[in-house]
Amino acid sequence: MGFPARLPHLMGVTVAIIGHGAIAQYVRAKLPALNIAEIAEIVRPGKEAPVATPPRISELNDLPSRPDLVIDCGGHQALALHGPVALALGIDVMTVSLGALADRKIEQSLRDAATKGGARLRLVNGAIGGLDALRSAQVGEISQVSYTGRKPPKGWRGSAAEAAFDLDAITAPVTHFSGTARDAALAYPKNANVAAAVALAGIGFDDTQVRLIADPGVTENIHEIAVNGAFGAFHFQIAGKGLPDNPRSSALAAMSIVAALAEMQKQIGF
Ligand SMILES: NC(=O)C1=CN([C@@H]2O[C@H](COP(=O)(O)OP(=O)(O)OC[C@H]3O[C@@H](n4cnc5c(N)ncnc54)[C@H](OP(=O)(O)O)[C@@H]3O)[C@@H](O)[C@H]2O)C=CC1
Ligand SMILES: O=C([O-])CC(=O)C(=O)O
């Protein structure tokens, strides 16, 4: 595919964003302040609008020019579909859909495409913090990493929890998942990306233990990490407010994309 030539650092940074949901809209609203232009919105087939500003397209082949970055705010399926195409074209991809990497086929196809295109998949921290300490701790021996995700019942709508429990009828905390980060990420594509972030920063998808809880006693999305190892021990907890348009997703997840964009802009070459 050939793109019209551009002079990126004279013209400002350009991105294409996958999705039009709660996270994508938050990120979009912050682009002007960062002097970043969105050259296309990537939507599902059937929702294209080629003359909109920016144009809405469903295939990267229809990009009007080459963006500096594709930002995935669309979820696992969107990353699996568009991520390898962008990377193979040499375009970096920033994603919040970390749980998609629990699927070995998706992970491999992203790796292969990144190698082919010489591009990079950039994982944002998402709705959690403390990952810097976990990455450092991982250099020594780690004996245990556990992650607990606790949300009000409405935060689990549209997830596997809804199929197993009547979320409206819960009067006490219900643990609806207990197992590995890999199984959590695969079973809860919209709710266990934090489990994946913890796994990737620490001891991996198969050794990180996860509990997911619907709790009528909380109003925020509470994420806890507990780690023990050669370094000592740490416990991290965050109570994140949900985005107004989607209580499942914490505002911090969207903020982490904006923070990563600001960080990239500080670096030479973006
Ligand atoms: N790392 C983290 O901490 C977190 C990660 N996430 C991840 O971010 C994702 C987005 O969250 P959020 O914005 O709140 O979700 P929303 O449901 O509000 O929005 C999702 C958007 O993605 C679009 N979309 C889905 N699939 C595709 C596709 N194949 N091609 C193009 N667009 C697509 C949807 O379009 P349509 O309306 O047409 O379906 C919708 O606009 C979540 O699914 C989750 O995987 C979320 C929270 C935290
Ligand atoms: O936004 C959150 O609180 C966490 C979330 O949905 C996820 O881990 O996928």
H/E topology pattern: HEHEEEHEHEHEHEHHEEEEEH
Identify every distinct bound molecule in the structure, by name, code or SMILES.
Answer: NADPH dihydro-nicotinamide-adenine-dinucleotide phosphate, oxaloacetate ion
Total of domains: 2
Task: Calculate Rg over CA atoms.
Answer: 19 Å
Structural class: alpha/beta
CATH class label of the largest domain:
Alpha Beta
What is the residue-mean pLDDT, rounded to a whole number? Answer: 95
CATH architecture call of the largest domain: 2-Layer Sandwich
Strand order of the largest sheet: 3-2-1-4-5-6
Number of helices: 9
Shape: globular
Q: Per DSSP, what share of the residues sits in E-state strands of 2 or more residues?
A: 25-35%
Uncertain residue segments: 5-10
Major sheet, described briefly?
A: 6 strands, parallel
Cα(first) to Cα(last) distance is 22 Å
In total, the number of strands is 13
Q: CATH homologous superfamily of the largest domain, by name? A: Dihydrodipicolinate Reductase, domain 2
Function: Specifically catalyzes the NAD or NADP-dependent dehydrogenation of L-aspartate to iminoaspartate.
Pfam family, one: NAD_binding_3
Active site: 223
GO molecular function, one term: oxidoreductase activity, acting on the CH-NH2 group of donors, NAD or NADP as acceptor
